[in-house]
Amino acid sequence: MNATVASTTGSAPDGLSLRDVLRHPTIAIGGSIMLIMIAAALLAPWLGTVDPQSLSGARRLKPPSTDIWFGGDMVGRDVYSRTVYGARISLMVGLSVAAISITIGLTIGLLAGFVRWVDAIVMRVMDGLMAIPSILLAVALIALTGASVANVILAITLSEVPRVSRLVRSTVLSLKERPFVEAAIVVGTPFPALLWRHILPNTLAPLLVQGSYIFAAAVLTEAALSFIGAGTPPEVPSWGNMISDGRLVFQIAPHLVIFPGVALALTVLAVNMIGDGLRDVLDPNFRAR
Amino acid sequence: MYALRRVLAIIPVIVVVALVVFSLLYFSPGDPALVLAGESATPAEIERIRGALGLDRPYLVRLTEWSFGVLKGDFGQSMFFGRSVAELMLQRAMPTLWLSLLAMVFALALALPLGIIAAWQAGRAPDRVAMGFAVLGYSMPVFVLGYLLIFCFSVWLGWLPVQGYKPPSDGLWPFLSHLILPALTLGVVYAALIARITRSAMLEVLQQDYMRTARAKGLGLWSMLLGHALKNAAIPIMTIVGIGFGSVISGVVVTETVFNIPGIGRLTVDAILRRDYPVIQGVVLVLSGVYVLINLLVDLSYGLFDPRVKY
Which of A34, B95, B136, B195 could form a disulfide with B263 if both were Cys (CB 3.0 to 4.6 A apart)? Predict the structure, then answer.
């Protein structure tokens, strides 16, 4: 981390402590909201929830009250329990897509940055993939593989990989021009050491920022896919599915859309705030953008 | 030369898109012949339908045939409607075109002033408020925003119709009143993207020496911001208008479902539910083509804003 900050700022402050990062206002706010969401996802069974699939005639289309906090849906499931359990799906999709697309994108980007023929071929394919709007690419993939949480993750990952590859590739290309990398090459640093010591640490900051935006985009795309019926299977309590179920009766039972909708928007907002904050903290050059 | 190279550069992109789109659906496990034949069909009947649809031929044959068809504007037959995909898409194109056009107008009308004011007041309250709205804007799921707007303006206030679409031939107000909320919904995410880039591009220009000169020679605030700064900040703004259009295309699919608009987006969603492959192929290919074309136009327009860009 120290190397990252020092090399991107030029005038090197002696690195950045975790406290500096946590003190940044948008990171602090976004991070707090995320902590609540993560806690909800992990502790779902102990937060006064019932089985999110259980039906009860007494709850059917009931508005929110002190007994049924978020009300009941049209088949009598508990909206509060489903909203809390929904955090699991959204966070899992966001985290998985961010982790997998960064791993794959990093590999492709490094290869493209160093190997010419890979660059020529692979980047053309990446350009092509990027030309397909992300929801449409996911829709086509889901039509191919069928609806499941794993396939949703795979489909969204495929549309994010090109963006990561491009970022890494351009970072590598500009690093190769930098004196410290040229010097390392001249003194005969073995390639793995060059990668590990000089290239990778400098891709970390942009990837961390990009990773949080990918997380946010993945949560949004999963919800949108589920909403149009091409996402997680209908019985899964995901926020997108809940809103999709509620849309036919939203005029008489708005709570079916509002609670999962607010949870969804808050989560995405929190992750985007963390991303913006990280961008500010990690690289002052980004700040103007 | 630049223009020619830029135009030629889209060919590999389109080829990859076509290849991806065709392959994805070619390898789909669901059997459309089974869907079309119905539950009581015998295996022989299903085989006959597969033959009639040409589903039993090898990959390369179908790919070649499909590609040549596409070049002639023939996207195949819908499996569900029994009509040509091109015809279906044309029939659904107008609502989508109007919707995205109006969304773009809203987005620019919202984003440019917000971005300019934020840059001018950088670090102060107006900047924070404007950028707060921007973060909120692109964190808000399109469909949640859509339902919120319907609640406010249609259910509570009763000013605008809840859902549906009316063509312009039904009169200006019925047409517009049905389109305002969906276009606003769709425009907000787009506006948030554009506002952020407008702010940062303007900030960069405002720090230039010639801006200080402009101020020193007594140029008015607005002619300084709009005439000098905005014009020089135009290239990054145009770029995000092009790239961000992808979010409009993705948003169209969702927005048309929320507002029940019979456009390309609805066609896509219906096609997914029916596994109507040729329609899905056609829509993904055409919309991606539109996206590539818009970004090409954006790149070519740089010369309008910056005479140093040579073609």
Answer: B95
Residues of chain A in contact with residue B247, where contact means CB-CB under 8 angstroms, are: 133
Residues in CB range of B139: below 8 A, 6 or more apart: A216, A265, A268, A269, A272
**Per-residue confidence band for A36, with pLDDT thresholds at 50, 70 and 90:** very high
Structure tokens at A72: 């009941």
B147 to A247: CB separation less than 8 angstroms, yes or no: yes
Distance CA A134, CA A28 (A): 30
Residues in chain A: 289
B199: which 2 tokens? 């702010």
CATH code, A24-288: 1.10.3720.10
What is the number of CB-based contacts under 8 A between chain A and chain B? 146
Number of domains in chain B: 1
Indicate whether B276 belongs to any domain. yes
Q: What are the chain A neighbours of B139 within 8 Å (beta carbons)?
A: 216, 265, 268-269, 272
pLDDT band at residue B104 under the 50/70/90 scheme:
very high
Find chain A residues with C-beta within 8 A of B144's C-beta: 243, 257, 261-262, 264-265
* pLDDT surpassing 80 at residue B139: yes
Look at residue B123 and tell me if it is in a domain. Answer: yes
What residue numbers bound the domain in which B99 lies? 89-305
ipTM above 0.90, yes or no: no
pLDDT beyond 80 at B17 = yes
